[in-house]
Amino acid sequence: MTQRFTVAAISFDLDGTLLDTVPDLAAAAQDMAAELGMPPRSDDEVRVFVGRGIPNLVERCLGGRAQNAALLQQAIAVFKRCYRARNGERAAPYPGAHDTLSALRAAGFRLACVTNKAADFTLPLLEQMDMRHHFASVVSGDTLPQKKPDPAPLLHAARELGVQPSALLHVGDSYNDIDCARNAGVPVLGVPWGYSEGRVLDAKDCDGLLSSLPDLLERVALPTDI
């Protein structure tokens, strides 16, 4: 029998969980490469680089060139400018994202978005995708000194939502999400359609895998059932 979680709040990763953002990130990476005179990275390569924030993504795009600290800092600045122009251009919600968030809020769950993406990109993207209003808490990659997989972002979200970590369920596409949740004492469900830095999520490493975002509605005990 499928486990149902008795929680009061649910947090979501963004890139690769609620939204497919690789088309915009890859376009920005290609713009950066063209400006800096470097070979471009493919969409599939960029997909593997997503998950630990923009500086890490840019460093991986540069490969061996990232040893040049001045070039790395220049590339990060160029990428941010390029991505600001591309952010939301081709990004799209995964199937059922809007309906699932709406249903969870209507059922009384408090929701958070916990991402390693910087706030300058997270908040405009959530607004553009008509998702910002769903979240009582948004924890971006620069909200705190620590990012996932450190437990601090989820613990911060739990405080903002007014719940204990054990009453928060996290949903994400990567081992950053799983490790963050485990470190925070938060149950976690994985999604197999995301990026996960090229690693395949194993159900044994989390508390289960979702088959779709609407599947989440069958995995939580609604407040009226608690």
Automatic annotation (TrEMBL):
E.C. numbers: 3.1.3.18
Q: What is this protein called?
A: Phosphoglycolate phosphatase
Which EC main class describes this enzyme? hydrolase
Tell me the GO BP annotations in alphabetical order: carbohydrate metabolic process; DNA repair; glycolate biosynthetic process
Q: Output the SUPFAM superfamilies linked to this UniProt entry.
A: HAD-like (SSF56784)
Catalytic residues at: D13
Query: Which PANTHER family does this chain map to?
Result: PHOSPHOGLYCOLATE PHOSPHATASE
Where is it found, in Gene Ontology cellular component terms? cytosol
